[in-house]
Write a structure and sequence with these properties.
The complex is a heterodimer. Chain A is mostly beta strands. Chain A contains no helices and eleven strands. Helix content of chain A is 0%, strand content 57%. Chain A starts with a strand and ends with a strand. Chain B is 0% helix and 44% strand. In chain B, a hairpin with a 6-residue loop joins β3 and β4. The radius of gyration of chain B is 13 Å and the shape is globular. Classes of the chains: A mainly beta, B mainly beta. Chains A and B meet through β5, β9 and β10 of A and β3, β7 and β8 of B.
Chain lengths: 126, 108
């Protein structure tokens, strides 16, 4: 069974840092791109970041670029999100999600999240 | 930055057809995907690549896309379909994901 389990959330002061982890099981982790999606209290879903299976390519939403870093350790089947310079507006449930990608003639044709974790809560407050 | 636009809410009676729209400039070239999120739960994929249904999703869920608008249709909506629904796609580069603002479906 494919499973994603997030951890590392908690209460942090504005300007502080936090590292989230996502432990993956049930699939060949290194073969799949992964992503982080967040949801502020009472708000909608927001795509945060994505990373290729090898870790060589990373992508960020404008709202977190320069402050957050996505990475992965394929030997540990674990995805990470290092969050620095945290702000109150970063308060959210953070979900880890597995990408499903379809390529056509070497170009990405379809890209979406097919499996999600249950999320971990990050609260930025003094 | 790229945006997908959804109506904030849709309301139908049980057994009626619910339609939720999603508009975006890149949709003619990019697929739309739909996620269902019930209160306190993680999102669940209900439609992928505009109109395909994952295994385990009831047949009453269907999707379509034409021009800059994608539509999620729930034929014969049931009370258990009450949830927030989000469309998802990527920007023209394909590297950045984007969600619509979400639509709260009420079935009563």
């Amino acid at each position: 069974e494919v499973q994603l389990v997030e951890s590392g959330g908690g209460l942090v002061q504005p300007g502080g840092s936090l590292r989230l982890s996502c432990a993956a099981s049930g699939f060949i982790f290194s073969s799949y791109a992964m992503s982080w999606v967040r949801q502020a209290p009472g708000k909608g879903l927001e795509w945060v970041s994505g990373i290729s299976g090898s870790g060589g390519s990373t992508y960020y939403a404008d709202s977190v670029k320069g402050r957050f870093t996505i990475s992965r350790d394929n030997s540990k089947n674990t995805l990470y999100l290092q969050m620095n310079s945290l702000r109150a507006e970063d308060t959210a449930v953070y979900y880890c999600a597995k990408y499903r990608i379809t390529m056509v003639r070497g170009v990405i044709d379809s890209l979406y999240m097919d499996v999600w974790g249950k999320g971990t809560t990050v609260t930025v407050s003094s | 930055s790229y945006e997908l636009t959804q109506p904030p809410s849709v309301s139908v009676s049980p057994g009626q057809t619910a339609r939720i729209t999603c508009s975006g400039d890149a949709l003619p070239k990019k697929y739309a995907y739909w996620y269902q999120q019930k209160s306190g739960q993680a999102p669940v994929l209900v439609i992928y690549e505009d109109s395909k249904r994952p295994s385990g999703i009831p047949e009453r869920f269907s999707g379509s896309s034409s021009g800059t608008m994608a539509t999620l249709t729930i034929s014969g909506a049931q009370v258990e379909d009450e949830a927030d629904y989000y469309c998802y796609s990527t920007d023209s580069s394909g590297n950045h994901g984007v969600f619509g603002g979400g639509t709260k479906l009420t079935v009563l």
